[in-house]
Amino acid sequence: MSDASVVTVETTGETVGEAKWAALRELEARVPGLDREQVEFQVVSEGERGLLGVGFTPARVVASVAAAPPSIETDEPEADGAQRAPKEIVERIAAAIGADVSISARERDGIVTVSGAGPDVALFIGKHGQTIDAIQYLANAITRAQGGEYEVVVDASGYRARRTATLEGIAHRTAQRVTATGQRVELEPMTPVERKIVHEALKDDPGVETASEGSEPNRFVVVLPRLAAD
Predict the structure, then answer these.
(1) Which of 40, 67, 94 is the endpoint of a domain?
(2) pLDDT tens, position by position, for the chain (230 residues)?
C-alpha cells in the first residue's frame, strides 16, 4: 500500500529456522497486529555447525514486512509503579553503553520484564548474552538497593526464549552423544544464566549428569555419563 512503510530486521540463529523465528518475534514487537504471511525473508547465511555440534557460525536472515504508519494515539500503557524504576535503570545502562534501543516494561506475578528493541539490539544483548545478563544483574542489584522486592528480567526481541531453546537443544544433543560414546563432553564457556539452563535441561536425564568447571568468564558445563561419576 502506498501509505505503508517497510520494517526490516536482521537476525541470527543456530539454524535458518531459528533465525526466521527470531525475526518474526522482533517484527511482532515492532509491528502491532503483524500478519506473518506477509513477511518476506532473505537468507544471508545458512550457518555452519562446529565440530561434533559444539560451536557454530550462526545462520543470518533479513526479514521485511509492510506496515501502516503508527497512529497518533497509542493504547500502550505508560510504565508505572514497580515497572518504572527498572525501566529507567535499564534505559540509563543502555545509554551508557551506547546502545540505541527503545525500552518497555511490564509486570506480572512479581516479575518485571524489561525489554529492549531497536537497531542496536545486538549490542544490547552482547556475545552469548554476556551484556544482557550483566544488565539484568545490575538492574536487580540496583532495584534491591532501592528497596524493590521484585525480580527484574531483561530481555530483547525474544532473546531469552530463543536462547533457551537453543541451549536446551544443545544440551539434549550432547546428552545423546555422551550416552552413546560414554565420553564426557565440554561445552563452550557460558554465563551463569546459560549454565543454569543447561543444568536444568539435563537434571532428570538418567544417563548423564552435569557439572560446571573452569573460572569466570570462561566457566563451562561438562556433560558426563552418570555411571562414570558414581
Answers:
(1) 67
(2) 444 567 888 888 777 777 788 877 777 776 766 677 788 888 888 877 655 555 567 878 888 887 654 433 334 444 455 678 889 999 999 999 998 999 999 888 888 899 998 888 888 988 878 899 999 999 999 988 888 888 899 998 888 888 888 889 999 999 999 999 999 999 998 888 889 999 999 999 999 999 999 988 789 999 999 864 44
Would you state the cell numbers that stand for residue 112, as one nine-digit string?
518485571
Residue with cell 525500552: 103
Asked if residue 72 belongs to a domain, the reply is no
User: What Rg, from alpha-carbon coordinates, does the chain have?
Assistant: 20
**Sheet of 208-213, strand order:** 185-186, 220-225, 208-213
* Closest by CA position to 94, among listed 48, 63, 58, 125: 125
Same-domain pairing of 148 and 215 = no
Residue 139 sits in which domain range? Answer: 81-157
Q: Per the structure, how many domains does the chain have?
A: 3
State whether 148 and 188 are in the same domain: no
Question: Cα–chain-centroid distance for residue 109?
Answer: 21
In a shared domain, residues 150 and 89: yes
Q: Which residue has the cell 545478563?
A: 133
Q: What are phi and psi of 176, to 5 degrees?
A: -65, -40
